[in-house]
Amino acid sequence: MVAKNLQDTTTLHNGIAMPWFGLGVFKAEEGAELVQAVKSAIKHGYRSIDTAAIYQNEKSVGQGIREAIVDTQISREDLFITSKVWNADLGYESTLAAYETSLNKLGLEYLDLYLIHWPVKGKYKEAWRALETLYKAGRVKAIGVSNFHIHHIEDLMESATIKPMVDQVEFHPQLSQQELVKYCKEHEIQFEAWSPLMQGKLLDNPVLQEIAGQHNKSIAQIILRWDLQHGIVTIPKSTKEHRIIENSDIFDFELSAENMARIDALNKNLRVGPDPDNFNF
């Protein structure tokens, strides 16, 4: 089912509803601009906010969430808040401690989704055991991974008792990860895209320009619509109110099968971020 509006959700394999569309805050600095961006997103209908410990902006995200709840009269339960444990904290006790630190910075009582940020070899299994502990204790609504290839997930599942509910990875028209998308669908793991707009590197692509012209939409809107029609949760980043509104204005048109295929054909297996099999940080 393709999302019909900004509040539409997909159901994770544990029954939790996750919005198809959200606000990412990667590289958004702590401060008034980010607080306002989070408030603007929620005011304009966003219900999902995605942050991470390493972004060092959880305090501003949390402030924006709390102020938006007061301003809009929506409840915390209507929001879906994600954060991630960083590589330096992967380990059983250290992951549990990192979760508490994130909650304290956000000023929240629980998270809707907590992810292992990167598959650091030899460390992610103990971190996953901590996520399972948090989940079983009702401290977090859903748990998942980020930047995991198929072999990482399969390795994790050799010792895991709970299957990840989400895998959040780099995904855009030049990195369409078709095998991983297929694997996640077959195993009921929700695929989620980070950097869906390839950090602005696709804005002069002639195929996307042509399709955008057909629909009188921006290239960003075409790409984000392509995500949704592929059944992929997407979280474009912006701190500008007009862009936050524009990014979400993608529910009044549909891409044809032909145009979906043309965008699919842009894949070059090209990354803007590190390869999870070959990173050092």
UniProtKB/TrEMBL annotation:
Keyword Oxidoreductase listed = yes
Its domain of life reads Bacteria
Entries under InterPro entries matching the protein: AKR, AKR5G, Aldo/ket_reductase_CS, NAD(P)_OxRdtase_dom_sf, NADP_OxRdtase_dom
Marked site, Lowers pKa of active site Tyr, at 84
Which keywords label this protein?
Answer: Oxidoreductase
Domain NADP-dependent oxidoreductase intervals: 32-267
Q: Which parts of the chain span the membrane according to its record?
A: none
One Pfam family matching this protein: Aldo_ket_red
Family according to the record: Belongs to the aldo/keto reductase family.
**Official protein name in the record:** Putative oxidoreductase YtbE
Origin organism is Cohnella abietis
Name of the encoding gene = ytbE
